Amino acid sequence: MSLLQQLMGGEGGSIWAIILQVAFLAFIIAYFFYGQRIQVAIWNRDIERSLRRLKLLRDRAREKAIKTVKELGKPEEDPTPRIDQFLETFLIEPVNMDPAGIVWKLDHLLDVRDLSMKDTVRRIAPKADETNLNNLENLLEAALDLNQIYRIVRHYYLMGKRTNAYIITAQLHMILPLIMEIAYAYDGAVEAFAEGQPIGDGAGPLLACRLLSGREVKKIEKDMVYGEAELEGRRILVLKAEGPGGNVGKPGEALEKLIDTYGYRPSIIVMVDAAQKFEGEETGEVSDGVGAAIGGIGTERFRIEEVAHKHKIPLYAVVIKESLKEAIAPMKKEIYEGVNKAVERVKRIIREKTKEGDLVIIAGIGNTIGIAQ
Amino acid sequence: MAKPRSNNLILIILLALLLIVAFGSLLGGGGAAERSTSTLLGFLGLIILLFLFLRLMAQPPSLPKTRIITVLRCEKCNVKNIREFRQGDYIPKREGKCPGCEGPMYIEAIYPEEPPKKKPKFKF
Known about the structure:
The structure holds two protein chains of two kinds.
Chain A: H1 3-7, H2 15-73, H3 80-86, H4 102-124, H5 130-163, H6 166-195, H7 203-212, E1 217-221, E2 224-231, E3 234-241, H8 251-261, E4 268-276, E5 286-290, H9 299-310, E6 315-322, H10 324-328, H11 333-353, E7 359-364
Parallel strand pairs in A: 3-7, 4-6, 4-7
Antiparallel strand pairs in A: 1-2, 2-3, 5-6
Chain B: H1 3-27, H2 32-57, E1 67-74, E2 80-84, E3 94-97, E4 104-113
Antiparallel strand pairs in B: 1-2, 1-4, 3-4
């Protein structure tokens, strides 16, 4: 019988059918013995793809940082080598074997880091004004974070591959969607910082800005301002980071100064901040509670809790809900609407918890990029 | 966003075809017809495998770029004006005069313009 006849499924049986049966059998046997390896190869392939994307995001952020520094800072020398050094900087947290006093040590290190970063930005962008300097610092920090994410993912990917430690590859693959979400958020933040657009975290400063509209403001602490206004017949002191440059300031130190140094004795302190929502919750929803509404590493919250406890001042919190991604991406319309709702919530708290003529401190916490006072 | 849906449709059609052929081979007689059916079944199986593999290897869709808009509001008559974001814009920057009452305008909001969201199927 000719080969053509066999191929067409002649009397001797189709050669295609035989090839297919052998191929399926081989596939089943291969999967039986090498199933796990095939699975790990698929995971590795997924991680590689995400890693390529992370590299792209990292490189894009670096390029954007270099371009913006050249545009706004007009340096005489090429800032690229200095920016590359900046992207590799790190902070060693204080030892926590004996945790007593760790907050002040950490606070000191954060101050040093902040000053050092500002100094570096000033050197690489000598012609930038204060607002642009703060925006550039934020932009470089976002690029630094993207670089850090890329390096960590690459480290675990290569380590898992080199040592054949499937568990490392599996864990990395499982948390990769969350890591990518954070990386995309930073990518959005890079654009916002370069352009000076308000970000989701600016909900607190935006509320403070609305309350301070048309009022005189004074500088109080490093990168912090405050102003006096009236709300529901009460005297209010409104505190926020100094904008419109990218800044979070030191609200804890500013509150300490207002209360301990300037001698203000508020009946209550109301803190307004953007807070992480749970999945399924709507962006821009508003909630209120008790405590210091402030994120970050914890040193500022510690100071605020200390001063409130020392003077027995009730501490209330109003939060505008948003995801981590929304907090560092350009501010969404829903968050603006959330700020309007938060103003009403603050008014309600003031009406219920104080009486006319009382003094109230309202602190708008968050990054004030794109939001002045 | 429509691509994953069309991919799912192709997969469903292929699976349906596979089931029809398999069912036909069960009802059909032996001999050459059975062999042709087995070959067809094998080919369909291979196509599905190849299709699933390509889907597994496909790049995730890139994120769409959004337009950032600046909302200006008149302090006097409250009229709203929307334009594209420009570098140097910030809240509450005073900028220009109201086209209606000549009153001062300020930047009220800066946000990305997003397409309207679809309502989720199940509201928890």
